[in-house]
Prior knowledge:
This protein has 20 helices and seven strands. The chain is mainly alpha-helical. β1 and β2 (83-84) form a beta hairpin. The chain is globular and about 75 Å long. The chain starts with a helix and ends in a 6-residue tail after the last strand. The relative contact order is 0.12.
Amino acid sequence: MAVAIIVFFTDISDIKLRLHWSVTWITAGVLIGGFTFFVGIICCLYYKNHWTSCFDFGLFSQMFYYMKETGQPLITCERDGLLSHFAVHFSPIYYLLLPIYMLIPDPRTLLVMQALIVASGVIPLMLICKNHKLTEPACCEFAVIYTLYPCFAGGCFTYIHENNFLAPLVLWFMYFCEKGKTIPKIIFAILLLLVKEDAAVYVAVISIYFLFTDKNYKSNLLILIFSIIYFLTVTHFLAKYGDGVMTGRYNNYIYDGSNSLITMIWAILKNPVYVLNQSFTEEKIIFILQMLLPLGFMPFITKNPKRFILIIPFLLINLMTNYQWQYNIGFQYGFGSGALLIYLAVVNCSEMKYPKLLLCSVCCSVVIFFGLYYHRSDYFKSYDEATEQREIIDEALSLIPDNASVISSTFFLPNLSQRDEIYELERTKQTAEYYVLDLRYQTEEYSEWDYIGNGFEIVYYEEGVVGVFKISVNIYS
Length: 477
């Protein structure tokens, strides 16, 4: 913040930086590659060191194994039994990654691809910047802001999730809406809807925004109607055949215990002051600052009230809920709303007479990003220091047959996920042939002494590191 203030009050009027258009795209390419490398490599090191957990990485790793083998998004470790992930969240967008995964069928492929997917949002952002006639230096500055936007890296560090697709797809949809290209606009609207059932919120809000700002009423209205019908249809099928919509994340508005979205909407309309009370708690104000400081609060610096329509997902998805992870930049719930905030910053910046504010935003982005994530570079050293322990764990896990059913501690589960049947030890009620215990930390949920001498064979045991036990044939006889 101090750096931004210094920049703001520094005279930079004599600096006239002119860049060739190619520099913008070279900068974008370097930033995409840098983000993918930094985030992808660190996530892979976590995986290799056995520190990625069942939620969310282990379950998606097993899902892609099933998709490769059967074409279906099946998982056993998500709800402690075999089911389709689409019974929890309807996310056919994952099939876009399946061809790449089939070429390189390794969980680390997913870790690198999720970083690349998020970073690729720089491309539509640059096109939007040019569409608003920003200078080449300004385009480069926004590329830096996007790449260093804290919730993007934070979401990736909790590993692959369908929400990762939101950032680039929202920006592509916005770009084609601006250009008035109907076919691409429809294609990206559909792709957005395929991310997740609640992605319909983004499609609907963007369509409403362009209904007020664009002359192409027909296509925007049709997309809006389709997104509403799609949302109602998918949520109906989730309620009837799946786990239902996660309305519990908004139980602060559902006062009658019905889990009904109608009750939630009615509560909001009846008492908007209560919405403000729920949306601006101390923790959420910190989240708001983390989302807006890297943008210099530019999304709100406008005289055009129509643009505040695009703030709705930020309010609805991140601030109104009492589900703590949705207003935490370290989780995957900021990709869509973050992309819209960056879009608003671009549009508002194109009308401003204070170019120093953009440079201040770049400074804030750099300081906040490195303040939050620079320490992760220490993991290269930690990875090297954990070599002996990692080799012990690798040896232990290698003794488990690929076709065996397994119950595993959460941090070992992703590394054992390429199989038909695996469950998370901390949550399961199932039984399996092999039990794998993470002994690197103490927990009240399990102990090796629950297995040693209690009808289990010791396959591998290293005190304070790992225990692998095989169920005896006659344990239940």
